[in-house]
Amino acid sequence: MIVFLFAIFVAVLLGWTLLRLLHVNGSPAELAVPPSESAHPSFIAEAVFSPRDWLFIQKESSTSLNALFVHERRAIAVAWLRDCLAAVRAVRASHLRQSRHSRDLNLLAEAKLLFRFFYLSTLCRCLLFVIQFVHPAAPHATALYIQNLASAVLPGQPPELVLSSVAVREVSRERLG
Amino acid sequence: MSQAQATATSVLVDLDARKAYDDLWRRTLSKIPGDLNRLVYLATMRDYNSGRYHHAGLETSFGFVAAGQALEAAHREVFWKLAQASLEQLVEELELYVRNSGESTEELLAAWRGLQPYRIALPLSIDPLAAHLLLSNLKLGLEVLHSRRCPPSPHP
User: Which residues on chain B are in Cβ contact (under 8 Å) with A47?
Assistant: First the structure.
């Protein structure tokens, strides 16, 4: 198990290093997909893999609560990762369709983008496997890394998030004291 | 008006809807303790069959359309706040809800754990995963409250 986790860590590190070397910034062609296929709100990964929630449940000192928490969070984590994979596939397919009609195709940039898609998909698949064996907060950092990578590769967030992430907290705080 | 308030009301294009939204917060929602209470209150303003929101006072002052938009915006706003809350915060919200319900804690916990009425308190057309997260957290929160009141008996 430790060897496997180490192998995943090395793979992530290698991928990250390669991305840094390639200096992939932005996409070479327009990525156009409907908003419904966009990435999920950015707080999802933080919430699902939250160490704070895990600690809170552990403080309750109940084995049944612990088990329920792991079961619930694992289900949401799987759904999130599957949605990420589906979104990557949709964006990649859309991009490939557009690339076929492009006259000034930059092959290097296209290769970089395809590598990015492949890297993100691989990470999602690895995490899908890992979360079957560890508690939900264990891969917190990796999940946030995937979330950041996904938000760079996939189109923007749903409009509600603009309202949710900043306004909601502050409006309520201001109004309700 | 702060930037945050401006962002919140920017989804309401209609001027009457913005006024209705402000009025709703000032007169009603600010007086309801806790976001879970607000979520349930706003859900009760929605017609089960049509999904449209109704509020007699707001409709008289601002019209049906503006009142509906204001209620929907507030409902979504409160939903997103709860969806982003930590489990600990959600348990506090549940405790507040139980205290303000006027029902006995045992009865309310039994009804909420069994019937899961909070499932119909969510706004329409929201991100399914965010909805899944909030429902799951509410389920966990109820189990935490239940476990605190009825701790599992130790093994013989």
Answer: 83-84, 86, 133
Which structural domain range is residue A64 located in?
Answer: 39-151
pLDDT one-digit tens code per residue, A98-147? 888 877 778 888 888 889 899 999 999 999 999 999 988 999 999 999 98
Give the 3-state secondary structure of residue B53. Answer: strand
Query: How many domains does chain A divide into?
Result: 1
Q: What is the pLDDT of residue B142?
A: 97
Q: Which residues of chain A are within 8 Å of residue B69 when distances are taken between CB atoms?
A: none
Question: Considering only alpha carbons, which residue of chain A is nearest residue B136?
Answer: A72
Buried b or exposed e, range A160-176, using 16+ CB within 10 angstroms = bbebbbebbbebbeeee
Please give the backbone phi and psi of residue B78, each rounded to the nearest 5 degrees, phi first.
-65, -40
Using CB atoms, pick whichever of A41, A64, A170 lies closest to residue B127: A41
**Spatial CA neighbour of A9 closest among A153, A139, A116:** A139
Does pTM top 0.95 for this prediction? no
| Terminal Cα distance for chain B, rounded | 62
CB A131 within 8 A of CB A74: yes
Contact A42, A147 (CB under 8 A): yes
Please indicate whether residue B144 or residue A156 has the higher confidence score (pLDDT).
B144
Tell me which DSSP letter residue A38 carries: S
Helix (H, G, I), strand (E, B) or coil at A3: helix
Q: Which of B21, B23, B31, B87 is the best mutation test for A, with the most CBs of A within 10 A?
A: B87
